[in-house]
Amino acid sequence: MVGATVQSDLLSIILRFRKFRYVLGADVSKMYRQMLIDPAFTPLQRIFWRKSPQDPLRVLELSTVTYGTAAAPFLATQALLQLARDERHRFPLAAMIVERNFYIDDALFGSDDYVEACELRDQLIGLLKSGGMHLHKWSSNDNSLLDPFPNEGRERCVSLGDSGINDIIKTLGLMWNPSTDEFLFRSQSPEKIKGPTKRQVLSEIAKIFDPLGLISPVVVVAKILMQNLWICKLKWDDPLDDGLLYQWESFLTSLPSCEQIRIPRQVISSEAIHYELHGFADASQKAYGACVYVRSIFPDGRASLRLVSAKSKIAPITPVTIPRKELLAARLLTRLNSKVEEALEMNFTSTILWSDSQVVLAWLRKPLDSLQVFVRHRVAEITSHKHIVWKYVRTDQNPADSVSRGQAAKELAENDLWWNGPHFLRTVDYQEEEPITLTDVEIPELRVQLAALPVMNYEEFPLLTKYSSFRKTQRILAYLLRFTSNTRKKKEDRLLSAYLTLPELRTALHCIVRAVQHQEFSKEIDCIRSGEFNHRLNNLKPFLHNDLLRVGGRLRHSDLPFEVKHQLILPDKSPIVCGLIADIHRENLHTGCSSVQYLLRQQFWLINARSTIRKVLRGCVTCFRMKPTTIDQQMGDLPSYRVTSAPAFERVGLDFAGPIYVKQPGRKATSIKGYICGHEGHASGSSGRFVSRFIPGHISVLRIPARLSEGSVQRQRNKFHRCKISFAGSVSTLQGGSHPEQDLRVLSSEAD
Asked: Is 245 in contact with 251 (CB distance < 8 Å)?
């Protein structure tokens, strides 16, 4: 068995190594030989041994961890961790270093405080000494931290030939100059081989070691070349064709320029007051990548960015759209950012990730259920990190563009955008560019939203229109619902009564109303669900309750029953609604329109109620039979003086109104009867109506005093000289005077 990995990964250790101001490195001397094996298992490590072929074979039993066995790394590192747990009470700081900053037998640790760095160094020495282990090959960016060690105990700095790189220490595969505290890269360019093969090319590319991804734009060019080798299906020892050979030679020519690159080790400035984490993602046809920066804000208003780590991947051979590649880059950035946050263990003020793909940013704002499977799974992983904010950056200000497209080493060494980030982030207050809001039509990979609405088709449910009686339809549907309910229940729980219950009838009623509403008000229901304005029912303030459309109204605070306050809305042209009106009309003994409307309003709100009810009631046969048409008396012909032309007021009609009671003047005011006398011209072309004053008199019901009539006619003649004839509205009244000589017919026929 190989055993589990019990130490931090290489990338996390190197990232923490870039965090501190004072750093140290050391190595455990002969680490495997310091770990004893349980005697019960040493027989499994027996070997044959002899110094020369002439000597007899000896059987040796190894008592320590043996280099080369599969379980050796696990046994050694687990023993080191157990030592840290056992001695934690004596060396707490050193125990933390062993648990977090050891990679096999190499230690990289540090601190921002010089005194604490010395304490870490001394505790680590004491902890390992208690386990019988010795540290050597010490190195540091501050020589005073190495004063306790002789020259033999320090890491020896080397120079790399003619490359001009001096005083170099190799730390976990990285080239580090402690005096300048910088990382460097050395290109081991092979001699140009005539006709290089696939095996030789891949071997040389594998020698490039860049765990932090600091020269990812250069490495991605080599990765693209590797992919092209596989696409061409070359065998291991087949030489490269002309096109691939040109790519390989161009890459080899530019690779020595990597030696010009100098990268500061420390990315966290101890003088800053705030720290932010900024990441960038980008994709192209060939590759996609991501890079992460630490943004330090200083008290004087300055801000600086330092490249922490980067990562690149080659695009799949199978065709993938650019938006999908941009999404893959965003996911890669999210993972890299999480790794950096976990390794640095700092409280960043904010974490902002940037992308130049507006489609990806639109995807991240969409609900997961609106995205297709490929996009949904990756968006779910990206958006699971709630503290991260995604923003838009232009392509020319996106440093990850260099990773996705690749770059020659000489160009990368002079690429200020790559090493120091975009210019707009180098000031404390920066202006970000808002992306264009894309519509759903412009966003690809969206799922087609199918709205499953309970819309019923009458052709599919003939029961609703089969019977003219609403109550009969309601009862039949209630029995059907009971049957379907009983089929889902156990035998002992089924309802088998001979009669329908009120809840069953109410449920059937709601089912019918729901079917009618979804048939007639489908658009209105969609508007209510989406919160849009609806012109047809807006004055009713409708709302949905249990998928039924009800009136909102203004009676919400009333103590009336809910069904009365919020009636069910019904359309005016549905045959089912007409059947309901007819049933209510018959159930209430063929009551009239107003009564039917009142009874209907107890539970329903019918659109255009009055006209719809009248239409239904006009078709009631019973009401038609019980209300026969009456014969109206025909009016007689008009007299000749009403239809013959004459001068104005030549023929005047006389009529009375009353009686009315009028107080008589005098000391003893008594009320007497008075009458209003009116005159109206009868001839064609005349107009005008005159009212005389009240005149006292004692008359009977059918007799009029002569003084009243005579005086009225006389005044009429005095006023209009052409008035010759006056007619009374009631001739019998005029003939009933107390004195025949004063009959008004005589008065009215006298000549002027």
From this structure: no
Give the 3-state secondary structure of residue 737. coil
Asked if 355 and 378 count as a contact pair (C-beta separation under 8 A), the reply is: no
Q: How far apart are CA 216 and CA 291, in angstroms?
A: 9
Q: Provide DSSP, 296-364.
A: EE-TTSBEEEEEEEEEEEEPPSS---HHHHHHHHHHHHHHHHHHHHHHH----SEEEEEES-HHHHHHH
Cβ pair 520, 571 in contact under 8 A: yes
CB atoms within 10 A of CB 96: 16
Contacts within 8 Å (CB) and 24+ apart, 715-723: 716/652, 716/654, 716/679, 716/690, 717/752, 720/648, 720/649, 720/652, 721/752, 722/647, 722/648, 722/649, 722/650, 723/649, 723/650, 723/651, 723/652
Tell me which residue of 207, 203, 209 sits closest to 174, measured CA to CA.
209
**Cross-strand partners of 184:** 175, 262
Domain positions in the chain: 10-183, 185-425, 463-625, 640-749
Can you tell me the distance from the alpha carbon of 379 to that of 381, in angstroms, rounded to the nearest whole number? Answer: 5
Q: What is the DSSP string of 641-694?
A: HHHSB--TTSEEEEEEEEEEEEEPSSSS--EEEEEEEEEEE-SBT---EEEPPP
Residue for token pair 């038609």: 624
State the pLDDT confidence band at 493, using cuts at 50, 70 and 90: confident
The Cα 716–Cα 413 span in angstroms is 124
483 CB-near residues (< 8 Å, 6+ apart): none
The rounded Cα 246 to chain-centroid distance in angstroms is: 50
Is residue 715 very low, low, confident or very high in pLDDT (cuts 50, 70, 90)? Answer: low
CATH class of 10-183: alpha beta
Residue 477, burial from CB neighbour count under 10 angstroms (0-12, 13-18, 19+): buried
243-294, pLDDT tens digit by residue?
899 999 899 888 888 888 999 999 998 889 999 999 999 999 999 999 999 9
Residue 397 has pLDDT above 90, yes or no: yes
Q: How confident is the model at residue 743 (pLDDT cuts 50, 70, 90)?
A: very low
Across the strands, what pairs with 61? Answer: 46
Residue 662 has phi, psi (to 5 degrees) of -130, 135
Q: How far apart are CA 168 and CA 187, in angstroms?
A: 14
Structure tokens at 535: 């012109």
- Which ranges of 60-215 does DSSP label H, i.e. alpha helix? 72-86, 92-100, 114-130, 198-205
Distance between CA 284 and CA 719 in Å, rounded?
110
Q: Return the half-sphere exposure (C-beta side, CA atoms, 13 A cut-off) of residue 260.
A: 12
Q: What is the 3-state secondary structure (H, E, C) of 388-431?
A: EEEEECCHHHCCHHHHHHCCCHHHHHCCHHHHHCCHHHCECCCC
For residue 143, give both structure tokens: 């020589």
* Alpha carbon 626 to chain centroid, angstroms: 64
Nearest CA to 358 out of 314, 327, 320 is that of 327
d(CA 315, CA 295): 30
Output DSSP code: residue 32: G
Q: What are phi and psi of 485, to 5 degrees?
A: -70, -40
- In the chain, what is the greatest distance between 2 CA atoms, to the nearest angstrom? 185
CA distance 155 to 135: 11
How many residues can be counted in the chain? 752
Question: Rounded to two decimals, what is the model's pTM?
Answer: 0.62
Sheet of 182-184, strand order:
169-171, 174-177, 182-184, 262-264
Give the C-alpha distances (Å, rounded to integers) separating 573 from 457, 516, 597, 606: 16, 10, 16, 10
Cis peptide before 647 (omega within 30 of 0): no
Strands 568-570 and 604-606: parallel
Burial label, 301 (beta-carbon count in 10 A; 0-12, 13-18, 19+): exposed
